[in-house]
């Protein structure tokens, strides 16, 4: 089976994908922003400490002296989990104080034009390093001195993570709210589609007039196509009705005339073989007339099943009419026929013509292929179901054939000229009335029975 696709589900999926991609981009941007903000914040603290250290350099007795201010270390002490490394280099490139192995490979001269920041690894620990310079112009001692200050990156990483996590939480919350708003907007926008489906579902099957609904502009081509299709369908239905009526008249009339011509032949003057052929011709004419009538009735039932509105109907009256129509006046006098209604009225929601045709076909089947001396029709109601039971004293149909005899052109007695349409017509009528055809097996105490089982009307 092909998997059903929901327009609402497809739209929600696409909106979700778009929001997910947007959220991923925003989270990535938030991470870059958090890292940049944390880096700038701690770089400023690192630079402030380095400048204070550079400002503490002084020349005493012709020698460079450094009196490191406590405030420089307090400035970096806001991050308690980080460690600080520093190094002061005099004008001759020698370490004045601090860690002598700190960044010994870099070119300090680049710091003469401004502070230099770089990432490094010191003692197997990632650090952020700043290099600042100070020019000394005292006569005894002149040149460039440098200050290197390094700080581990735990605090700035923690700040980056905190900024990013808060941004992620905000992005997720906003994306969720946007998704909910998108779902509500999609649901609201698809209401015209549901309204169109409801209008088509509530429309009478016989109503093929154009739809006139207040719909969005985007759906007008769809409505136009539906109206065009209904117009074509209306024309086809009219042609079908005309064809059935013409076929019924054009086919039945010649067959009736042919049967009358065969009956007018003088059988006494014909040879024996001609009389046998004439008898066979009469049988075939009768079978052809019956088959033609059933085919036309079957076409009528199929057409009415989808177009006729079901109305409140008294099933007792319909069954009585079908009984009179199916039981001929010239019925075998040895067969006892009876009609019984357990209630005066059994109301159902049905199509009178189709129900009458279905019951008549069941009775006709029983007369032609079942009953030997007895045929009974009974109408009753029980357990919110309306039942029309047609029983006869014939052999009945074997249970293994019950599922098949309600199919078109399937018969349990093909040698008796059965067309296999009687039960098919009855079954399709029962299905159109939300019912079914059932069978009851023949026993020593009861005859074989065919049951038309349909729901009762609401007020019964």
In short:
The chain has 460 residues and is an alpha+beta fold.
Query: Which descriptor suits the 3D outline?
Result: rod-shaped
Broad CATH class of the largest domain: Alpha Beta
Percentage of residues in strands: 15-25%
How do the strands of the widest beta sheet line up side by side? 4-3-7-6-5
- If you consult CATH, what is the topology of the largest domain? Beta-Lactamase
Radius of gyration: 50 Å
Distance between the termini: 41 Å
Number of helices: 10
Helix content: 40-55%
Low-confidence stretches: none
Rounded mean pLDDT score: 81
Structural class: alpha+beta
CATH architecture of the largest domain: 2-Layer Sandwich
Number of strands: 14
Number of domains: 3
User: The biggest beta sheet, please?
Assistant: 5 strands, antiparallel
- SSE order: HEEHEEEEEHHHHEHEEHEEHHEE
Give a verbal description of the structure.
This protein is of the alpha+beta class. It has three domains: 7-161, 2-Layer Sandwich (Beta-Lactamase), CATH 3.30.450; 220-307, Orthogonal Bundle (Helix Hairpins), CATH 1.10.287; 309-460, Histidine kinase-like ATPase, C-terminal domain (Heat Shock Protein 90), CATH 3.30.565. 50% of the residues lie in helices and 21% in strands. The strands form four sheets. It has a five-stranded antiparallel beta sheet, with helices on one face. It has a five-stranded mixed beta sheet with strand order 9-11-12-14-13, covered by helices on one side. A hairpin with a 7-residue loop joins strand 13 and strand 14 (448-455). Helix 6 (272-307) packs parallel to helix 10 (422-432), helix 7 (315-326) packs across helix 8 and helix 8 packs antiparallel against helix 10. It is rod-shaped and about 165 Å long. The two termini are 41 Å apart. The relative contact order is 0.07.
């Amino acid at each position: 089976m092909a998997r059903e696709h929901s327009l609402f589900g497809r739209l929600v999926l696409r909106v979700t994908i778009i929001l997910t991609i947007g959220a991923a981009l925003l989270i990535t941007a938030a991470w870059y922003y958090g890292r940049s903000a944390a880096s700038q914040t701690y770089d400023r603290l690192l630079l402030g400490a380095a400048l204070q250290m550079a400002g503490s350099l002084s020349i005493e007795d012709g020698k460079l002296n450094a009196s490191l201010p406590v405030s420089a270390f307090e400035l970096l002490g806001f991050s308690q989990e980080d460690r600080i490394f520093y190094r002061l280099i005099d004008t001759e490139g020698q370490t004045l104080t601090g860690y002598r192995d700190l960044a010994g490979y870099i070119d300090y001269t680049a710091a003469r034009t401004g502070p230099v920041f770089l990432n490094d690894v010191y003692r197997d620990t990632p650090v952020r390093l700043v290099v600042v310079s100070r020019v000394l112009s005292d006569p005894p001692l002149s040149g460039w001195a440098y200050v290197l200050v390094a700080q581990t990156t735990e605090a700035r990483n923690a700040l980056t993570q905190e900024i990013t996590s808060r941004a992620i939480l905000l992005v997720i919350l906003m994306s969720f709210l946007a998704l909910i708003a998108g779902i509500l907007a999609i649901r609201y926008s698809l209401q015209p589609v549901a309204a169109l489906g409801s209008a088509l579902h509530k429309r009478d099957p016989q109503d093929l007039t154009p739809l006139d609904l207040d719909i969005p502009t985007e759906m007008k081509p769809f409505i136009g196509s539906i109206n065009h299709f209904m117009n074509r369908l209306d024309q086809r239905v009219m042609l079908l009705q005309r064809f059935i009526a013409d076929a019924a008249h054009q086919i039945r009339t010649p067959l009736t005339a042919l049967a009358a011509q065969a009956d007018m032949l003088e059988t006494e003057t014909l040879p024996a073989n001609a009389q046998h052929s004439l008898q066979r011709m009469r049988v075939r004419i009768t079978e052809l007339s019956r088959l033609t009538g059933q085919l036309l009735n079957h076409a009528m039932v199929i057409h009415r099943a989808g177009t006729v509105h079901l109305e409140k109907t008294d099933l007792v009256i319909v069954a009585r009419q079908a009984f009179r129509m199916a039981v001929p006046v010239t019925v075998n006098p040895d067969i006892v026929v009876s009609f019984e209604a357990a209630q005066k009225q059994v109301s159902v929601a049905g199509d009178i013509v189709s129900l009458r045709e279905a019951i008549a076909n069941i009775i006709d089947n029983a007369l032609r292929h079942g009953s030997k001396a007895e045929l009974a029709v009974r109408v009753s109601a029980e357990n919110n179901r309306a039942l029309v039971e047609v029983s006869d004293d014939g052999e009945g149909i074997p249970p293994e054939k019950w599922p098949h005899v309600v199919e078109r052109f399937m018969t349990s007695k093909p040698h008796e000229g059965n067309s296999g349409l009687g039960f098919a017509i009855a079954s399709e009528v029962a299905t159109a009335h939300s019912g079914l055809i059932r069978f009851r097996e023949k026993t020593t105490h009861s005859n074989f029975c065919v049951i038309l089982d349909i729901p009762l009307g609401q007020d019964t």
